[in-house]
Amino acid sequence: MNENNPNLKLLTISVIYSLFTVAIWLLVKSNESASLGYMFFLFIGWIIFGIITGIIIYKDKIKLKNWNLLLFLFCTPIPFLVFFKMTSKEPVIGTWEYNKNEHRIREITYENRKEYSSSVDKTTEEYPIPANEKYHLDSIVHYDENNNIIKIERFK
């Protein structure tokens, strides 16, 4: 095989590895209550794929140049971690929901702000939870380092 061509075994492992990572990540996003278990499987999968990749590189004496270096990079968690860091939102510190004025209020707390949203559907004493999960953003309250309000944005 020409040295400039990518190694097909490494290509196969990188494609399977990427599909595995994306599949587990989609499971995490679809069922956040079980995300810790899925992340455990992701971590174990990364270890197994790392061992398999190491064995293939050693047995086939693959030189990590040009395409093979790029394929090797995609056999590691590095692209996933870079993508995750680039697309992740500010971490949520806490959420709280309560009923007020016949609507369900959702309060989401971040490091320097709180977002308040109210349910589209009305709530009653008999049905305290709205029929659907649609909320609209009412306001965002921004805080400084001392937790003093510095700005309030209101939405209609």
Q: Which terms would index this structure?
A:
4 helices, single chain, alpha+beta, 156 residues
Describe the structure.
The protein is of the alpha+beta class. 43% of the residues lie in helices and 25% in strands. The protein contains 4 helices and 5 strands, in the order ααααβββββ. It has helices at 8-30, 35-60, 66-73, 78-87; strands at residues 94-100, 103-109, 113-122, 135-143, 149-154. It has a 5-stranded antiparallel β-sheet with strand order 1-2-3-4-5, with no helix packed on it. Helix 1 (8-30) runs antiparallel to helix 2. The radius of gyration is 24 Å and the shape is elongated. The protein starts with 7 loop residues before the first helix and ends with a strand. 10% of the residues are buried. The model has no long low-confidence stretch (mean pLDDT 87).
Secondary structure elements and pairings:
Layout: H1 8-30, H2 35-60, H3 66-73, H4 78-87, E1 94-100, E2 103-109, E3 113-122, E4 135-143, E5 149-154
Antiparallel strand pairs: 1-2, 2-3, 3-4, 4-5
Helix pairs in contact: 1-2
Rg calculated over all Cα atoms: 24 Å
Helical segment count? 4
Span between termini: 64 Å
Helix share, percent: 40-55%
Percent of residues in β-strands:
25-35%
Strand elements, count? 5
Q: What is the succession of H and E elements?
A: HHHHEEEEE
Largest sheet: number of strands, sense, barrel closure: 5 strands, antiparallel
Report the uncertain regions.
none
Adjacency order of strands in the biggest sheet: 1-2-3-4-5
Q: Taking all residues together, what is the mean pLDDT?
A: 87
Find the structural class using helix and strand composition: alpha+beta
**3D shape:** elongated
